[in-house]
């Protein structure tokens, strides 16, 4: 291959869009969650636009009827998660705009961190996290807020069943009826 032909080929490649490792990890994270959602008997829709929620999970009762309300998921994927020195949690610097939006959300919101290297994901029920004593409060002018996601909160099929139960509790508290098991 001549130098000018190689330079032309390199220039042509540079002008094209390229699938990166980040794109692959993002697809793997969605597929990982999709398995557990489907295994729980639920459905999941993803949004092309990101306004604070990547996925909406619709749950169903034992008879296959759709439940009221939804479970919102913000999914963050990376090659490796950042463990905290406490050894029991991962940290994530969350955009303050997400914190502001999720704090006012009626539907349960879960931040899910996916680690491609271990093919594992971990969840944090955000509104409950904010209600805990000493919950994080953004500093004035801050762009991010650091949250802790427990290593013990591993995403599995049982997690999505648990998320359904939490959603039903919220629905009942709003006067929408009794939560079933």
UniProtKB/TrEMBL annotation:
Domain of life: Bacteria
DUF4365 domain span: 26-157
Alphabetized InterPro entries for the sequence: DUF4365
Name the record gives this protein: DUF4365 domain-containing protein
Organism listed in the record: Aquisphaera giovannonii
């Amino acid at each position: 291959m001549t130098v000018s032909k190689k330079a032309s080929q390199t220039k042509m490649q540079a002008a094209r869009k390229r699938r990166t490792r980040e794109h692959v990890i993002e697809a793997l994270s969605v597929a990982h969650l999709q398995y557990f959602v489907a295994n729980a008997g639920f459905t999941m829709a993803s949004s092309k636009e990101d306004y604070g929620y990547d996925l909406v999970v619709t749950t169903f009762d034992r008879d296959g009827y759709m439940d009221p309300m939804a479970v919102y998921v913000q999914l963050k994927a990376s090659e490796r998660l950042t463990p905290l020195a406490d050894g029991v949690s991962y940290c994530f610097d969350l955009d303050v705009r997400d914190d502001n939006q999720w704090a006012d959300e009626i539907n349960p919101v879960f931040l899910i961190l996916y680690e491609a290297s271990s093919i594992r994901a971990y969840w944090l029920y955000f509104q409950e996290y904010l209600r805990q004593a000493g919950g994080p409060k953004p500093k004035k002018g801050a762009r991010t807020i650091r949250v802790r996601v427990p290593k013990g909160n591993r995403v599995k099929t049982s997690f999505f069943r648990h998320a359904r139960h939490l959603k039903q509790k919220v629905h009942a508290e709003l006067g929408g009826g009794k939560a079933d098991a």
